[in-house]
Amino acid sequence: MMRDKVIKSFNEDAYERQVIAENLMKIIDSQTEPMVISIDSDWGTGKTTFITMWKNMLDTDDRYKNNFKTLYFNAWENDYIKDPLLAIFSEFEKQIKEEEGELKQKLDKAKQTIKPIIKLGVSAGIRMLTAGILDTEKLTISDYNEEALIKLAGQIGDLGIKEITADKTNRAKFKEEMFSYQSASNNKIIVFIDELDRCRPTFAIELLEVIKHLFDIDNFIFVISIDKEQLAHSVATIYGQDMDTLGYLRRFFDLDYKLPSIDVRKYIDIKNEQALKNRKNVELFKVFLKEMFIKDSFTLRDIDKTYYYIEVLLPLIQEFKEDKSYTAINIATISYIYSLLITTKIKNPTLYKKVMDGKYDIKEITSYFKPIDMLKYGEKIIGGFHPIPLTEIISQIVPTYLELNFNIVNGAEDINYINQKKYLIGLGEEKHSIFNDRNFNMLQLFRNNNSNIRNNLEFLNGFNKE
User: Fold this and answer.
1) Spatial contact of 300 and 267, defined as CB atoms under 8 Å apart
2) Which of 154, 212, 370, 462 is least buried, going by the fewest C-beta atoms within 10 A?
3) Are 208 and 144 in contact (CB under 8 A)?
4) Residues 268, 165: one domain?
């Protein structure tokens, strides 16, 4: 399987976000009080990359590495764990397990204090006391006389008070031990929490409560990356749509920072350069991809996912591997079809499957695939084409390919006996001549194994990228 290129260092960042992390560090460095910072940005806009680079900066940069200890916690990957405190402390312990001596002992002492905190709460204790009778789902008041109810209420009250008192004591012990650990380490501790907005709503809320009430410890800083609007929607599923969920969330954060938006075109240019470096005949492919990304409002995450599949495909595309005498129209055709189908696979997988299965109405599906606008490039020559003739070719590619694909997949035509001129595309009056380098015969995409787009895409379908 191909691996994602994980950007970990600000040295690889083209968006000058390092200054954001450095400025936030100035704020963090200026005080000792506990702090919770939200890094807010829409889904798929680079939050994870930003906090990964920020953490790397603190771990490797001489300005920070001796004064800060960092941890990373992916909330979404841990939301199957019932208790958020257990989840976050387990990750804490795992990432600093190499520490020994006094620091390890202090961490172990803190670990002992969390055990009572994560035991059954008051409601569970009530169910145990009443042998399950006072499970709120099963309570039957008529089974009790007045005297028995008064006695039971007293027992429940006593149990509740005892548990609350014990809980406060245990929380205080935990915070004391964690502060002792931090003091012994002589570092401020920064915990980066990622993908909170993707969690179960109850887990997300409980994790925020744990941070607010158990980690309000001097020199502990939490940096939480969120899509705040999405998280607010999740909270609303618990507390109701009429609640001021953004106001509710605000109480958990001391600082709210909104990441500035990224220039998507610049991002695509960088990804093109990385993925298509040293490839042949790819100028049009780069341009077509960019225009389709913009037209269909791809997020950065969508774009990254697309390039994952492109890197799988590239070794299979003969036209991009060698400088043979492919005609310009040949290159334009395969570049456009690959761009169109790969981006459709990401943005509309149901439609993509219909194309691959040949289960579509030709007119209807052709109208869906609106051509990209190349005329905005003015007089610029792209891949050997002026935008006007390139637009003429593009207008022929999609309907011709979809008709041929439909007929071949559904057995309506035998590829060995199709009229040579039926699926020609090209320029000018001579475009219907089979002996003309100003045209291209779409049949080649099905007859020639080295140029068979369907075969390559069917192979690609065996890969999965979530």
Assistant:
1) yes
2) 462
3) no
4) no
